[in-house]
Amino acid sequence: MRPSSSPAEPAEPAEPAGSPPPGLFDEVLARGPVRAAVDDRAWLAALLTAEAGLAQAQAGLGMIPPAAATAIAAAAQPAQYDVGSLAVDAAGSGTPVLPLVTALRQRIDPALREYVHYRATSQDILDTAAMLVSRSALAVIRRDLETAAGHTATLARRHRNTAMAGRTLLQQAEPTTFGRKAAGWLVALRTALASLDRVASTGLAVQLGGAAGTLAGYQEAGPALLHAYAAELGLAEPVLPWHTDRTRVAELAGALATTAGAAAKIARDITLLAQSEVAEVAEAAGGPSSAMPHKRNPVAAVSALAAAGSAPGLAATIYAAMTQEHERAAGGWHTEWRPLRELLICTGSAVSWLDSCLAGLQVNDAALAANLASMLTTVALREPAEAHTAAAAALVD
Amino acid sequence: MRPSSSPAEPAEPAEPAGSPPPGLFDEVLARGPVRAAVDDRAWLAALLTAEAGLAQAQAGLGMIPPAAATAIAAAAQPAQYDVGSLAVDAAGSGTPVLPLVTALRQRIDPALREYVHYRATSQDILDTAAMLVSRSALAVIRRDLETAAGHTATLARRHRNTAMAGRTLLQQAEPTTFGRKAAGWLVALRTALASLDRVASTGLAVQLGGAAGTLAGYQEAGPALLHAYAAELGLAEPVLPWHTDRTRVAELAGALATTAGAAAKIARDITLLAQSEVAEVAEAAGGPSSAMPHKRNPVAAVSALAAAGSAPGLAATIYAAMTQEHERAAGGWHTEWRPLRELLICTGSAVSWLDSCLAGLQVNDAALAANLASMLTTVALREPAEAHTAAAAALVD
Amino acid sequence: MRPSSSPAEPAEPAEPAGSPPPGLFDEVLARGPVRAAVDDRAWLAALLTAEAGLAQAQAGLGMIPPAAATAIAAAAQPAQYDVGSLAVDAAGSGTPVLPLVTALRQRIDPALREYVHYRATSQDILDTAAMLVSRSALAVIRRDLETAAGHTATLARRHRNTAMAGRTLLQQAEPTTFGRKAAGWLVALRTALASLDRVASTGLAVQLGGAAGTLAGYQEAGPALLHAYAAELGLAEPVLPWHTDRTRVAELAGALATTAGAAAKIARDITLLAQSEVAEVAEAAGGPSSAMPHKRNPVAAVSALAAAGSAPGLAATIYAAMTQEHERAAGGWHTEWRPLRELLICTGSAVSWLDSCLAGLQVNDAALAANLASMLTTVALREPAEAHTAAAAALVD
Amino acid sequence: MRPSSSPAEPAEPAEPAGSPPPGLFDEVLARGPVRAAVDDRAWLAALLTAEAGLAQAQAGLGMIPPAAATAIAAAAQPAQYDVGSLAVDAAGSGTPVLPLVTALRQRIDPALREYVHYRATSQDILDTAAMLVSRSALAVIRRDLETAAGHTATLARRHRNTAMAGRTLLQQAEPTTFGRKAAGWLVALRTALASLDRVASTGLAVQLGGAAGTLAGYQEAGPALLHAYAAELGLAEPVLPWHTDRTRVAELAGALATTAGAAAKIARDITLLAQSEVAEVAEAAGGPSSAMPHKRNPVAAVSALAAAGSAPGLAATIYAAMTQEHERAAGGWHTEWRPLRELLICTGSAVSWLDSCLAGLQVNDAALAANLASMLTTVALREPAEAHTAAAAALVD
After folding, report:
1. For residue B136, what is the DSSP state?
2. Which of A123, A335, B373, D218 could form a cystine bridge with D222, CB 3.0-4.6 A?
3. ipTM of this model?
4. Residue C176 pairs with which residues in a beta bridge?
5. Greatest CA span in chain D, whole angstroms?
């Protein structure tokens, strides 16, 4: 499998200009750049990119006239298509690809129309578009994730020697440092980053196989076309068409659920540290309350938890949908579409909120010291507390 | 708990005029009337209905001036509010209620503004709106479910004596009748209907408690207000405010997941019966294919399966979110919003598709007979096949 | 559907004598009486009860000789069978019923052997046994649940006027009372109880239909046998055999997941209230730590959370397994067995631990007062705190 | 992170002698070598291996007397411990480690007892043991997976040119070959293998940190000890103790769920191909039926589906349990234990059954040809069918 990181010209979906207004809960649960990366306009752009890329690859191999590829690329402008109409027509065949192909054909010279979607099947285009959309989404998620990781690294450095009470089962237990705690967060985020990067670099592949996944329409040129298509879009080249082998979608889901879980752990810690009775941290911009103007809620951490809470169930849906029949599934494939989008959104939102939560997180040294002192009055430590915190500090380096 | 079925005037959310166009996958995975029942405009209407209903109940008890309730009702017109702006402002507090209250206040006489959202908390309004939205959604889901059940009843009657091969582990096993099979579908749908109806009649309750769920803002009149509020909206009156007791949301989720599962079982049977090699049924309007014009796909059954496939994971998310802290959760409550909406959508879509699938389902008597005959050549039945099918036919009555 | 509460003689599975030792994690995650209620010996007893009950019902209708029913009942002694051997032989057919029938036949007069499992199918017996096992498990779960509810009622009464800080988003918010908090717990547990009772009284039904679910083997006497069988075992009589209509299993799963969630909410509250920095409650018997002898961990609450955490995923598995093919599923039915058992165990364990946690829960009045006082210094309450807490206290009645 | 593949002497848990008899459903749902790899005896052995390995590493660094390590190793014989007693005593502290340490100490010279579990915390040992158990389980799962992959490779080669009907949405669509189908299975299994191997080689790490995860008990020698401990057990060395960073458990869960899904897809295909009406394949050893002696059920494929069906929900449980508080979780950690074991079991069982299913799978050339011929009478192929199947055959190389 060819890594997707070395395309000649990575054909990114055209950037949609002017975002639609957010939905009612979107600024809480579909926050940050991931929303635009996976919305209908991004999907439409990706579908058109997939069709144009296929035509380009086919022209390169002499399968269709160069003029057809040029015409298709020219017609593949998202702004010219109406998502609502495509959506309505999708009901007949079960996917929006067929109406999109019809609409695309109407926009080009009749003599060239037959070369649109040439010998491809709907799933070829939709799966390829799903990979393009996922690539864009992963790119923005990983950017926020890296920023968040940077914040934890800063906290780890800055609070290398800031002693505090370590807590097990929500009971004060032994001393640690704030730096050690932040370093633990950092390691989890780095694991998540590595997981996303692995999927992004080798897991996102073009789809092309024709109805039965045999590349039959392209005769002996099939494998070469698969290769050229992958190169054209900067996606990995699969060993075989993967219409009903959903392992790559499953690995994407797993990496996202792991990322959401890593973010949730940190957000949980922060909501606990921000409790009125603990008061060791506060968000830079805590949120107001409709009933209690005096409160400063850890809105970012709470929202990160809220978003991340959807990930496990969505990943389960994608795993369960892997049981896909024969050459195209009778349901399982379609099942993936909303959960995959939702999983990208909730993971991206969790990371975006985590980023906000950690940026400028206020660490209350006095509270840390006071809680630690309180603990030390009740704990008969076997070793001096200084040794404990020094050990924790050493772990940060 | 007072059943919600006996309100003086059930205050339904105002019907939104003119539906927005569907999203790219909506006609497949968010199909039928449920989409409009749970969309942002329905939510906005429900939030306003909740505020207006509260004011009405408070005015009835003399807590606020009647003029305030009148003014609030007049200002509670969804068309006057912009979802996008409310959504943007929601980020600060974590819910859209605070910006909505602000917007509502701006639309009424300054002297009466203090009576908007009088001594309520955001969750009071949002949870009440969620119940109103769920009520509307359940109403349309149950309507489609009843229609689908009617179709199965028709099939059970019509094919009472239509013998066919019964299949276990996907192997032909013993004779049954098509009527018996359809009767089994009917029983499952009736169980689902009963489950939805139970939730609709007693599980959907108003929420009112103020910040800490004590009804403290209303002094000794709190319980009377809770009662009046429930009557005003035609929802059940809870024993106590239920901000962090999410059992009623869980029961709603369970009824929906059960319904989706019942629909999926039928749709699976139909996709299997519609296989080329079995050919015992065909959908009245099978769908075309982009690559294979000759095929007649069971698009409705496939789409029902596709929609239903999301339900188990979404229900799990709602169950997992029940672990809500103290008087308001730090994440778990917000987590519910998207999964609850998604669960209503996917269940409603599955039922809507099932309805289409069953309406005019073509039963191929010749194929049924031929497959049965084929089975009887290889099966040494212990009793005459007629006895078997007669037993099955008798079960249909 | 006949309610299962009025059998002439409810044929409970014979009580297994002498429990096997617990597994390594069982006293934490499979705690209390539910473990024995669902273990292999309970299953074996239930399978034998199902066979004996069927024979009894058949003899009553003159289908088989009375002597056969007597002989089968005599041979249906769990102690005479070896679970391990049955299990090994189960691999061939996919269920342990076939080897059990073989073993049962070997224990009776050859002339009567044909009347064992007379014209039934494996799933008839296994599903009926699953219902018997579930009935036993629900009985012990509801007993612990009722005890736990009783504890919360006691706390609600005793602390009716014990003021404390109410907390939203883990921030101190407004005053409430400990009694109000406990009353909220009580309401959730009562909802769970009602849910379990509804399932226990109408959802648990005998299964009988023969291979294709037609009752064909019993000719015209099928429905009467179904009725008699249900009466014999004290289970509900289904409208039709439900081999692939799994709505009743789904409703059982939903009630269990709801119960686990209700328990988890309370346990979460207690772990939070027991934090070193909050110290408002302590378990009567907190647990020791291998590294920190000074700690008193809220082991019961933590263990309740640990057990309950498995419920959502298990319920999802059962919902997903509802998509069962034709007259017997090719996988989905078998899939239920372990998750259903696990779901009964984890819910029962959570409730058992909750019971221990609440029994003798120590409420620290001084800490409650101190935290409330601390809150009141920072909160500019719109009303006197007394009004708030009086409102909360009033909710408890 | 150091890969675990280069230990001097990989200290495998002692092989338990003589397996306990299977549980009632075990030969169906907990099949193959994975059951013994994760049972209580394997866990006990792994816990003892973890304690002995820690002592060995500590002795190597001069932290404890060499005699202590020798004595501990000598006492760490699983056969000397009673799981039931340890389990009973586990209830007090929430884990079986504390009672095991007590039991271990009783078996050695009082003067050396203090060196047992020297400055470790329960979670250090339990997590390390979980990694050892997972390593053993992954080893047997991958072995079966490789065998299964070998079977698919054989089918792909043997049936390279065996034309058959390709099916989409369960409708005959276009020609493919059996070899192409089998090659698709192979690719999915290889992806699963790569996923398991990645986790096995870098994801399974020792745990060591002491109560607060600071390595404080070991002063400045902590990192060296972590390194030596990892080398001793042949596990990866983590960057930091990972008590509440559960990303590595999540990645393990994801790899298992992906594997189960890949197995389920193949098993679904086989149950469909084995349908009476399709009859293109048959299992070498189909299973009998209690009611229908004539049937030959695809028991292995059905059982593979049955086992795999549990994986998505279990993975979701593990993802949801990642939200672990501070330095040790109040519930989330304990939650993992049963689901992780169950997930290993169900994945291993699915793979084991798949192996049986594929071994000697009978491919019915006549049925393949007949179904294809039937399809070609109704399909107006745009290209000769030979081209399609040639393309499919070419993909197999």
Report:
1. H
2. D218
3. 0.95
4. C164
5. 87
CA–CA dist A187, C144 (Å, integer) = 42
Helix (H/G/I), strand (E/B), else coil: A167: strand
∠ CA B234-A28-B98, nearest 5°, is 55
- Chain CA centroid to CA C178, Å: 29
Q: Assess whether D289 carries a catalytic annotation.
A: yes
Residue ranges of alpha helices (H) inside C169-277 are 178-198, 222-233, 247-273
Is the separation of the CB atoms in B244 and C184 below 8 Å?
yes
Cα C244 to Cα C250: distance, rounded to the nearest angstrom: 12
A residues 27..66 contacting D (CB < 8 A): none
Shortest Cα distance from D380 to chain B (angstroms)?
Answer: 7
Tell me whether residue A61 is exposed, middle or buried, using C-beta atoms within 10 angstroms of its C-beta: 0 to 12, 13 to 18, 19 or more: middle
Q: What is the rounded CA–CA span in Å between residue A343 and residue A249?
A: 12
Q: At C287, is the secondary structure helix, strand, or coil?
A: strand
Please give the sequence-ordered ranges of beta strands (E in DSSP) within chain B, or none if there are none: 163-168, 171-177, 281-282, 362-363
Q: Clarify whether D290 is annotated catalytic.
A: no
Site from A177, A258, A281, A396 to mutate, D interface, most D CB atoms within 10 angstroms? A258
Cα–Cα dist C115/C69, whole Å: 8
Chain C residues with CB under 8 Å of B382 CB are: 217
Query: Left if phi > 0, otherwise alpha if psi is -120 to 50, otherwise beta: which for B245?
Result: beta
Angle at which helix D332-358 crosses helix C332-358, to 10 degrees, equals 160
Q: CA B334 to CA B320: how far, in whole Å?
A: 12
**A297 to C171: CB separation less than 8 angstroms, yes or no:** yes
Cβ atoms within 10 Å, residue C371: 22
Task: Give residue for tokens 């009372």.
Answer: C177
Neighbours of D308 (CB within 10 A): 33
Q: Which helix (H) or strand (E) holds C43?
A: helix C40-60
Strands (E) across D154-313 are located at 163-168, 171-177, 281-282
- Which residues between 107 and 166 in chain A have a beta carbon less than 8 angstroms from any beta carbon of chain C? 165
Token representation of residue C389: 């807490």
A257 chain-D contacts, CB cut-off 8 A: 250, 254, 315, 319
- Per the listing, tokens 């030969």 go with D27
| Interior/surface letters D255-274, b for 16+ CB within 10 angstroms, e for the rest | bbbbbbbbbbbbbbbbbbbb
Q: Is the pTM of this model over 0.90?
A: yes
- Rounded to the nearest 10 degrees, how much is the dihedral formed by the CA atoms of B358, B361, B365, B367? -90
Locate all alpha helices (DSSP H) within B39-96, ordered by sequence: 40-60, 66-75, 83-93
Cα D24 from chain centroid (whole Å): 21
Structure tokens at D340: 């992780």
The bridge status of strand C163-168 relative to strand D171-177 is unpaired
Q: Which amino acid is at A120?
A: A
Q: What residues contact residue A217 under an 8 Å CB cut-off, 6+ apart?
A: A118, A119, A120, A210, D382, D383
Chain D residue with minimal CA distance to B318?
D320
Could you list the pLDDT tens digit for every one of the 397 residues in chain A? 334 434 444 444 444 456 789 999 999 999 999 999 999 999 999 999 999 999 999 999 999 999 999 999 999 999 999 999 999 999 888 899 999 999 999 999 999 999 999 999 999 999 999 999 999 999 999 999 999 999 999 999 999 999 999 999 999 999 999 999 999 999 999 999 999 999 999 999 999 999 999 999 998 999 999 999 999 999 999 999 999 999 999 999 999 999 999 999 999 999 999 999 999 999 997 555 555 555 679 999 999 999 999 999 999 999 999 999 999 999 999 999 999 999 999 999 999 999 999 998 999 999 999 999 999 987 666 566 787 888 888 888 7
Q: Cα–Cα distances in Å, from D144 out to C335, D140, D150, D347, D352?
A: 21, 6, 10, 11, 6
